[in-house]
C-alpha cells in the first residue's frame, strides 16, 4: 500500500514538482494526494494541477495572526485526504507545536542550509558573510523547534569566490530537487538511513 503524501507550498513549488514527478514512478512507495498552499496566488498550485494532483489553498491572511485557527483550517483539509506523510516544500509559515506534535515522525521539511547551521531565513547570504567554503541543503523530520529534528539527508555545494546569494541559491536549488525526492522515497519505504549527495 503506497503512503499518501500531502505537500505544503507557499510559492512556485519547484521542490513540490520534483517530489510529484518522482512519485510518478510506479515502483515509488508513496503517492501525492494533495498540494496545499497558504495563498491562492502560489504558482505551484497550477503546476500541481497540471501534474494531476488535487490542490487547495488556505489563505493565512484572514486569520490575522491567529495561528491555531489557521492550523485548524489546514487540518480540516488534511482530514479530507488522510495523508500518511506531510512534506513542507517551501512553506513559509511557522507551524505551532499544536500542529506539529501529532505529525511528529511523519512530517518532512527541506531547508536551504547545512543544518544545524543557519536556521531560519537568508541562509545563502549568511553562508557568504561567514566565509563558508561549502553550503547546501538539508531534509529533516519536523519537530516543534524551528529547522530542528533528525536529519534524513544533506547535499553540499562548494562556495565559489564570486558567488552572490542568488548564484549560490540557484546551485543549492538544483541539489534540493535531487535530495528531497531521494529522502522521501527512502522515508516512505520505512528507511531513515541518511542520504548524502
Automatic annotation (TrEMBL):
GO terms for molecular function: phosphoribosylglycinamide formyltransferase activity. It holds the Pfam family Formyl_trans_N. Transmembrane segments: none annotated. Residues 3-183 form the Formyl transferase N-terminal domain. CDD domains: FMT_core_GART (cd08645). It is an enzyme of class 2 (transferase). (6R)-10-formyltetrahydrofolate binds at residues 67, 109. Keywords: Purine biosynthesis, Transferase. GO terms for cellular component: cytosol. GO terms for biological process: 'de novo' IMP biosynthetic process. The record marks 147 as: Raises pKa of active site His. Pathway: Purine metabolism; IMP biosynthesis via de novo pathway; N(2)-formyl-N(1)-(5-phospho-D-ribosyl)glycinamide from N(1)-(5-phospho-D-ribosyl)glycinamide (10-formyl THF route): step 1/1. Catalyzes the transfer of a formyl group from 10-formyltetrahydrofolate to 5-phospho-ribosyl-glycinamide (GAR), producing 5-phospho-ribosyl-N-formylglycinamide (FGAR) and tetrahydrofolate. Belongs to the GART family. This is Phosphoribosylglycinamide formyltransferase. The gene is purN.
